[in-house]
Amino acid sequence: MIPFPRNSLLLAPMVGITNRAFRTFVHEMGDADWYTTEMASAEAFLSGGRNESVYLDPAPCPPRTSVQFTARSPDSLAAACRAMSKVPAERRPAGIDINMGCSAPHIKSSGRGAALLDNVPLAKEMVAAARESWAGPLSAKIRLSVTKGEEGTIFLAKSLAEAGLDFLVVHARFDTQKFRRKADHRFAVSLAKELLIPVIANGDISTAEECRSLLASGNIHSLMIGRAAVREPWLFLRLHEELAGISVASAQKHDLLAIGLRYIDLAETLLPPEWQKETCRRSFSYYADNVTFGHHLKFSLINAPSLDEMRIILKKYFDEVPQDRFL
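^ thats the sequence. predicted structure below, dont judge the formating
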């Protein structure tokens, strides 16, 4: 059961970014076909950890959103899935995604995230436990295994599919590469030929040409986009229009000042106070790439002591460089 049509464009999960505020922002700016929350801990959710309700909030589009879990054991993942299935329908996500790609040292050292790439039996058990406890769409997001290489990663992916996944997202880099070098979509296409479930390609996708090239293979089901959508939150609208043959010349201009101020307002309204500055800093580190003096603007915003100071910095920048305001 895959909950979106072929050739869909999905928003990737990104730690500290794809919270409710950012997903609402993208929804307003043009909308993705599917959303995934930032990574949440199954164990923290079960123990009632602080702010877990924020991590697991599927708004503004619960019917088109997966919650992403990382878990230390199949039992805790299964328990989290069962608990999520009991959440009232209006606050329940449509799907659950299992993180098997996070390379953060504290995640890997606990056997979670990318550590599962090298532990096929445990990874398969995780999927089977989640499948038994969750009736909705179930997916996993992987990278390439450093120790097992491409063949080993294909074996892992087949094992996960057999255990009950509905679709698989592959970010075709080794977990040790993080975001260095380009994603190897050749591997994603090869993997898609080997699996009976849909494969979603992720990594360094930002243009209609890249989308067409990947989708033309006939094997890749859909595409997932991350950092490019933080830089350009209207990206999904642009790509959908370009893929549909709508002329770029007819596209609307975007007011970068209004966009920046709107994002601050969303963060302030929808997130806990202790999250607000950090999520703005992370997002603005990409947003600043749109302007001439991006390094200067980025430095000023990430060092701003408050949201109000961020608003002042944005207004001052576009007063001083008005030609950058409309993109």
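The beta strands are 9-11, 35-36, 40-41, 65-70, 95-100, 138-144, 167-174, 199-202, 222-225.
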